[in-house]
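Forwarding the complex inputs:
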Amino acid sequence: MSQVEDIPQPKGSSRTSVASSMAVPTSDNARQRCKIAELEEKLQVLESGHAVKQRETNYFMSQGRALRRIVALFDSIEDMIGENDRRCDLEGDDDFDTSHDRLQSGYIILNNTLTWFHKKTSDMEHGDYMHMLKKLRHGADSARGDDTSKLKALVPDWVNREWRPDPPIDPEDKHCRGFAHDTCGRLLCPTELDWNDPIVRAGIRDRADGYVVTKMSWPVFLYAGYTADQNNLEEGLFKSKLLVQAFKAIFTSPSSAKDVSGDGDGANIIENHRRATKDPLSKKVKTHVAQIIKMNKVSPRSIAYVSCQLRFALSSVTSWRSIDGDFDYTQFWYNIVDFFECPPGRAAQCNIDRLLTWWTRYITFNNFNLTAVN
DNA sequence: TATTCGTGAATCACGGACTG
DNA sequence: CAGTCCGTGATTCACGAATA
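Prediction (whole assembly, three chains):
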């Protein structure tokens, strides 16, 4: 079982310390939810029988909903616990590579997200522990499914408004999407290839040598203005309007995604912020996902999650899986997380900070602001 | 060895309950 | 009223066991 007191920090890499994000100011709403959770636990001690089991089941499922979104889209809880246990057992100079660091960072974020996790799991019987993991996983997968189905209908709407493709993308059907559809293909196309070139289009569709689309290249839909500077591939990366719309649709409600009108342009950011904060007619809506899962920071992993969900929505794949043809979503998610968490040097770190600051300014919704964290 | 069958997990779509 | 959560049922898929 994992050790509560000392969560080892990642060693031997430049991965940004996630532990520094542990002390974050909580909203009133978040504090109230914590209090409710505490009271519920006390109730469980006083009561017994099926009702308690039922409530606990719902509690774990509800807690699990945050996991895929902000902890790890593909890594299992068991793997993260295993990595933490491994580090606790090892001493001295041990081998830590990027994938192990990523798992360990995930474990730390897991414990920041589910603050009860350490204590609860160390007291549990094996059967209850397995049951809890199962329910957490169930909650995690159902939230991911909800987000997938949400974007399945929303993304065609955004793309159809922006590009007015002929034929338009069917919000119900995914078979016509992916590289078969000109606009989806253009957005999914790796930046180093020119979708306007018919030879390139044919090559990608036939998966010919030199045109295989893998997780190794950043797709166009991630870039501001949907174009990349081949001499500076980081310019505009993770600043596309579609990405921000998807982020807002998932974390701050589908209606809030309509506010997005810019494309990485500074004036628009300010304009959006001004409108969001000063519009007296803006409706105060129900607590949204970011508040529910106590997410008060835009984190690299949430951006990676949205990037994967967005790519999936643009693709023709109908049910969730980690491989789409030659494209590996798991590695794609890893690449994005590593891009943010393992910047190669100080200059790269500064760029990441700037990028997250940009998200800070962009993701604003009524009286609730998401701030960026590194 | 190939096929069939049963089972459980994963996924999706849908609708009701609930909330602010 | 918009948005989220959650339960339910249908469907698909993978896998192992049984059978021809």
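Residues 126-163 of chain A form the longest helix (38 residues).
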